[in-house]
Predict the structure.
Amino acid sequence: MTVATESNRTVLFLARSQLNQLIRTLADDGYQVVGPTIDQEAIVYGDIASADDLPIGWTDVQEPGKYRLQRRDDEACFGYVVGPHSWKKYLFPPVTLVATADRTGTGWQLSTPETEPPRYAFLGVRACELAAMKIQDKVFLGGPFVDPTYQKRRAAAFVVAVNCTQAAPTCFCTSMNTGPRCSSGFDLALTEVADGFLMEIGSEPGNAVAARLAVMPATSEQLERGNSARQQAVDQISKKLDTTDIRDLLMNNLRHPQWEEVAKRCLSCTNCTMVCPTCFCSSVNEVPDLTGDHVDRERSWDSCFNIDFSYMNGNPTRNSIQSRYRQWMTHKLATWHDQFGSSGCVGCGRCITWCPVGIDLTQEVASIRASQNDSSVGSAVSSSHDEKGNS
Amino acid sequence: MKPAATAHPHNPWLAHAVRIAHTETAAPGVFTCDLVFEDPLTAAEYSFSPGQFNMLYLPGLGEIAISISSDPDQRDSISHTIREAGNVTRALAQLPVGTSLGLRGPFGSSWPTEDCVGRDVVLVAGGIGLAPLRPAVCHLLANRERYGELNLIIGAREPFGLLYPLEYDAWRAHGLNVHVTVDRANSDWHGAIGMVTNVLDRLWLRHAENTLLMTCGPEVMMWYSVQMAISRGLNPKSLYVSLERNMNCAIGLCGHCQFGPQFLCKDGPIFRYDRVASILKVDDL
Amino acid sequence: MTDPTSLQITSAAENTAVAVRPRPRLAVFKFASCDGCQLSLLDCEDELLAVASAVEIAYFPEASSRMEPGPYDVALVEGSITTPHDAQRIQDVRRIARTVVTIGACATAGGIQSLKNWANHEDYLRCVYASPEYISTLATSTPIADHIKVDFELRGCPISRHQLLEVIGALVNDRRPRLPAHSVCLDCKRKGTVCVEVAQGIPCLGPVTHSGCGAICPSYDRGCYGCFGPVAQSNCHSLTNQFLDSGNAAETLLPLLRNFNASAPEFREASNRVAEISIERNGASHR
């Protein structure tokens, strides 16, 4: 994807009545258009056949452990923040076939599936979600081994970003420098105003699609309305995560009493990791057919909150909620920097909203940070390794 | 999005078909399994460095990470010395010669044999920890003239738990000082009794500061070996340990084997001690 | 984690030692229960023939009038212990079975009938029976593991037939069963089901409940009833606090916690605590 810099982008205006034309154009190009839609009392991501499928006139109200749909007093298509789903369900599906084995007369035929990937057009990608995709690109494409499923799906995807015009109390993208403004990583980016959308072009494929739409250069009045709509999101963000030296803060406090404290509340239920747009843990399992002659190797989403995730020689390495919470949070906010050169957190707030007991990671970090002036905590504890033997 | 320039060109989930060429008991509950590639082209392309591991795959049962224990210059077959522990290893132990299975690899970091050139080297192995060190022993002895004094300390719980005992004399003949010690033994045993650290404590070191140590075995044993090495004057940057965690994908994508900032499968299993020292003693990490 | 359903999962291994072994002898015993878990075995349909070829079904009164005497290699035990006679009979089962696998919430946690553990046993007898003096029953319903050593427990009300097949397959092939140990939440998320507790305020036991059902209830806008019992290291204390803090009356949580797995220790402790809170708050009796 070639990405033009923000400064030389032409901003276009797409009338609200023309939104369906965008969806149709993408569908005509062979894309499966997916985007926000209302299902199960939430705004989730699903197939979008027309603008009627969008959550028109609805918004989400979020707080730690709580999410509710609410009517808006206007007919905005993208007048919500983020929901329980993230785009990773399309790029890194919950269950993927990674390999197969078929019994032959003399042994096994071992293969990997060579299927054509679905071509998705993502409609309504937020700035924090663009950041999450860049992070997962690093994970799945940036190392010595590339994941073929992710690679194919990612390469085939068309991204229509939509700038946030409001924020939830759980949002903290400004702390993570990921939003709320979409600045790169999209083919097209929209900003919703009352009568339509300001449209920025982020790539050649985006330009080609825009060229087939009934768009006009935006007027300065329209640009101004777009600016103030986006500014509203910035102004609404209240949550902060102080990321100063956060890697060392956490790694120097692996024995901090706060881990035990959060473990009293944490259910170790995996919800935070499942809704996180960057969490990538998975397990490959054998799925034999009835005869046992054909075996699918299925990769499923897994979580560091599962006890058996760390099984080694019959025993879990992380056999307590506190050790698992510590693994998740130190990975997300600290060791991710060592591994992938950035934080693993984009500040979308999903882990806060969708935690059934409303644990807020920003507060857990703040508790550890606040204690740093108190010398009595964070001291080393005695180790259990007090025996030695050969084997 | 383009993959990293260094990315491997093949689908990393694709296993190679291999066959069991030979299998034998190595110690109680431990067996050695020699594998050959079914495809000669794959066999010709395959090479590994001492300390690396393979994923062995029994369709329907699952996949396990096993260190390679054969001589890296020996191209006819690949050996793995395996402890019977779970479903896959126990099934593997029962398989007859000729059985077909899958192999992905090699994966992971290797012992720093290049850094050993011109230096004295101490290898410390505990129990089955000798298996991943055996390729290093082979490599060092095949290029014996490039290294200084070579010592190998082998520890086991009991004499019958010692791996590859018939090879020790040949290793000695090629210039490796082999020291064997066991935790306990009956009167038939004429060797040393005690921990590997006791041997390390008394080992004659020509130039401690120019000696490199590699150790593999239980984490506790490695920890005390490293502490002993430091107290003997070895540089913490010259100490190497081989760590173990649950591995699932072996290609750094699944998250299982994380140990602090490290992915054991791609950053490890072999680490320079000073790079993991701060997290080695953190419980349940 | 998926449900491996095949019995032939030994792959190459079955060409060797396994194939020449005689078929293990399987027996199915019923204690206080509804028979639903036994029916899961009959429900296997396509796989039933595979089961029959892998094991010799020697004793299964629900399915066949042919009843062969023990000893058996594997005993599947359904139901809880509620009578003195059953308390003796389960000892006999243990003596004649090499491996005992308990199946279902009754056998693993005491079942719905363990609600009697909170009630006055004599009152119940007088209410239900015209001549209670002819009834010989214990004051409690208890899981099998309270009486004998159990080799493997398979949870659920009813059990998952996929899990049952996995356990039988594992026993036949002398390996450890592969059963997922995560919470119901993970299954909801993999399916794309939106959390009913967070989005709708419905009290849901999913976060503390063992996987196995396929997360059915939340996909129909119902909270999880905990049919598969508490997940390992479940934090019921925190979850019930959350239910209470978000406005649920303590007494409405009791029927949720006192259900098919009411007497599973984690759920029992949580419900007893909730009952105490209920009494504290409004003096009502929910003992």
Q: What stands out?
A: The CA atoms of residues 145 and 227 of chain C lie 18 Å apart. Residues 11-172 of chain C form a domain with the Rossmann fold fold (CATH 3.40.50.700). Chain C touches chain A through 48 residues (CB under 8 Å).
